[in-house]
């Protein structure tokens, strides 16, 4: 508890609220959390005046205010490149608050969440402390690093693009059944970089086909390093938009390593739904041929594109991956839960295997289990890791599953399904 108090004492907060009673109540609550560096503004214009003089860590912002309202303030904060965090505070309809929250994210600002009026002290405490977690995550992701074309070409030449593997777990048994291959760049100066540092440049300079080939072959090769019981794990690999119209697809179909790999394990190619619909005629032929050659096909990030249910049903998918943007919020936002529930029902009616990505806690796991989801993937199970760490991850997961999810059964879970 002392650690949290020390962290809270360091925070500076700006309360932007026009109602005097709400102002007083919120400031009093913040003070009781050991935060005493608190400024007050009655609208967006006053808030900007304060920010022109000093910086703050967190802005607690009402939406409906005279002069400059909360929406206009958010836009101005984005223009001024505000680096702190924002916590929305409103008694308005949920749909409007949700829209304001999405707008905040689109403007590139750090959103802690949204609280009702008056807020619960525990809820307010949770959001204020999450300010530090957001800063920690940003440091870990090296978000400021963006590689140029020549750096990426050098990375390809030096074989610095490598696959990391994130486990996928059967929700009925708790067994590790598959892994998804995710690209990382082992930079000699910056260390391990996530795709946010280099993927945009790869797409901009038409290098996606080359990346697809590297990841496909390296992933298959890495999987051969696994000993029993993990040597039979299935493998999921992402296929880019451009690959559907590129010779790389024919290469995947015809090379000997593909045939050998499919004979040993099931390989699922994950295709974003935006790809399929934008190249409808080509996609339906190519994807059908892939299925005929033994691949499984997953519609990735389902729920984020512009496809209709009718169009999705026309493609030969046998797996749906529900996007993490909804899964990670389904235990806290009713709208996210409803979207996940609808996706599960759609997939079940179409006879598709259901994978939920972005599972971050046991509450989300249990909700997905109740809905009938087949497979879970996310930080609750494990972060993506090098192939050599999978055995340790599997053992750690079995202990976690037995302790937190399946405590009433004494028999240990199997190694794999």
Largest sheet: 8 strands, mixed, barrel
Structural class: alpha/beta
CATH class of the largest domain: Alpha Beta
User: If you compute it from the alpha carbons, what radius of gyration comes out, rounded to the nearest whole angstrom?
Assistant: 24 Å
The coarse silhouette is elongated
Detail the poorly predicted runs.
Answer: none
What's the CATH H-level homologous superfamily of the largest domain?
A: EAL domain
Average of pLDDT: 86
CATH topology (level 3) name of the largest domain: TIM Barrel
Give me the number of helical elements: 18
Overview of the structural elements:
The protein is α/β, with parallel strands linked by helices. The protein folds into two domains: 2-141, Rossmann fold (3-Layer(aba) Sandwich); 149-405, EAL domain (TIM Barrel, Alpha-Beta Barrel), CATH 3.20.20.450. Helix content is 47%, strand content 19%. It has 18 helices and 14 strands. It has an eight-stranded mixed barrel. Strands 2-1-3-4-5 form a five-stranded parallel sheet, with helices on both faces. β13 (353-357), α17 (362-371) and β14 (375-377) form a beta-alpha-beta unit. α3 packs parallel to α4. The longest helix has 21 residues, at 121-141. The chain is elongated. It starts with a helix and ends in a 12-residue tail after the last helix. The mean pLDDT is 86.
């Amino acid at each position: 508890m002392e650690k949290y108090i020390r962290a809270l004492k360091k925070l500076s907060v700006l309360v932007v609220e026009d109602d005097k009673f709400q102002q007083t109540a919120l400031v009093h609550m913040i003070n009781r959390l050991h935060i005493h560096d608190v400024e007050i503004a009655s609208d967006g214009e006053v808030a900007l005046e304060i920010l022109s003089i000093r910086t703050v860590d967190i802005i607690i912002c009402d939406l409906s205010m005279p002069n400059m309202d909360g929406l206009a303030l958010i836009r101005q904060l984005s223009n001024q490149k505000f680096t702190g965090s924002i916590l929305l505070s409103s008694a308005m309809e949920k749909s409007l608050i949700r829209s304001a929250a999405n707008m905040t994210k689109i403007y590139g600002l750090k959103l802690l969440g949204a609280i009702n009026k008056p807020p619960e002290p525990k809820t307010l405490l949770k959001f204020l402390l999450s300010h530090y977690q957001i800063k920690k995550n940003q440091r870990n992701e090296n978000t400021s690093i963006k590689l140029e074309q020549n750096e990426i070409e050098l990375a390809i030449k030096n074989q610095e693009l490598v696959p990391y593997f994130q486990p996928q777990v059967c929700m009925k048994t708790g067994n590790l059944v598959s892994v998804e291959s995710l690209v990382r760049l082992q930079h000699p100066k910056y260390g391990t970089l996530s795709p946010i540092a280099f993927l945009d440049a790869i797409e901009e300079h038409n290098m996606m086909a080359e990346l697809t080939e590297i990841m496909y072959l390296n992933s298959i090769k890495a999987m051969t390093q696994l000993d029993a019981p993990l040597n039979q794990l299935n493998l999921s690999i992402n296929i880019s938009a451009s690959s559907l119209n590129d010779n790389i697809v024919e290469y995947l179909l015809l090379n000997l390593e593909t045939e050998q790999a499919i004979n040993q394990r099931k390989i699922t190619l994950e295709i974003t739904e935006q790809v399929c619909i934008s190249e409808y005629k080509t996609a339906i032929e190519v994807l059908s041929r892939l299925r005929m050659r033994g691949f499984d096909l997953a519609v990735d990030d389902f729920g984020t594109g512009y496809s209709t249910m009718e169009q999705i049903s026309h493609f030969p998918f046998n797996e749906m991956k529900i996007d993490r943007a909804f899964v990670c919020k389904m235990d806290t936002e009713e709208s996210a839960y409803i979207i996940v529930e609808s996706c599960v029902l759609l997939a079940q009616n179409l006879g598709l295997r259901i994978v939920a990505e972005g599972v971050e806690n046991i509450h989300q796991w249990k909700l997905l289990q109740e809905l009938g989801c087949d497979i879970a993937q996310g930080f609750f199970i494990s972060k993506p890791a090098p192939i050599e760490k999978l055995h340790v991850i599997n053992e750690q997961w079995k202990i976690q599953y037995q302790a937190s999810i399946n405590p009433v059964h004494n028999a240990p879970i199997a190694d794999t399904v």
